[in-house]
Amino acid sequence: MQVFGRLLFGRVRVRSYNPEPLDPVADDLRPLPPGVCAAVLHEDHVLGPTPETFMVGPSEGNVHELYALEDCAFFDVVVPPYDAAQGRGCTYYALMNGGMDSGHRPILVPSNSGDFSAEPLTYGGPRFEPPTACRGGAARGAAAHASSEDQRW
């Protein structure tokens, strides 16, 4: 899955991670809940205040978090779209309490997505070509808005 996002206004901090498997024996984590993984920082940067395009690829930086540093808005184009029935659901993670593995990597546990939903729409515009200077980074959802009052989504 590829995500292309566009920050419309404001500033947002984007941290993205590469998930890595855990060793339940070395990390004394038996039994592991399904979907638990370690996280290795891929990128950590601030977007804005001018509009910027960013992307998340299917293999690097795909686990990500966003912090609104001030009121901001962005939109995402997800290709192919989220579709749990097709194995392309959106998974949310939380840090495991005190969770670090033996390699001092944060441990992530799948969590509740709250009221998140995505609606696939057919794109009827001109052919889309990813920008060559696209920033790596992250976004989630088909459309989103953040307020500085909700700094962590």
Can you tell me about this structure?
- The strands form 2 sheets. The protein has a 5-stranded mixed sheet with strand order 9-4-1-6-10, with no helix packed on it. A 5-stranded antiparallel sheet has the order 5-2-3-8-7, with no helix packed on it.
- A hairpin with a 5-residue loop joins strand 7 and strand 8.
- With about 150 residues, it is mainly β.
- It is globular.
- It has strands at about 1-10, 10-20, 35-45, 50-55, 65-70, 70-80, 90-100, 105-110, 135, 145.
- Residues about 135-153 have low confidence and may be disordered.
- The protein contains no helices and 10 strands.
- The two termini are about 20 Å apart.
Give a quick rundown of the structure.
With 153 residues, the chain is an all-beta fold. The chain has strands at 2-9, 12-20, 37-47, 52-56, 63-68, 72-79, 92-100, 106-111, 135-136, 143-146. The protein is 0% helix and 44% strand.
What letter string, H or E per element, gives the SSE order? Answer: EEEEEEEEEE
Strand order of the largest sheet: 9-4-1-6-10
Strand content: 35-45%
Please state the CA-atom Rg, rounded to the nearest Å.
16 Å
Largest sheet: 5 strands, mixed
Query: Helical stretch count?
Result: 0
List the helices and strands and how they pair.
Blueprint: E1 2-9, E2 12-20, E3 37-47, E4 52-56, E5 63-68, E6 72-79, E7 92-100, E8 106-111, E9 135-136, E10 143-146
Parallel strand pairs: 4-9
Antiparallel strand pairs: 1-4, 1-6, 2-3, 2-5, 3-8, 6-10, 7-8
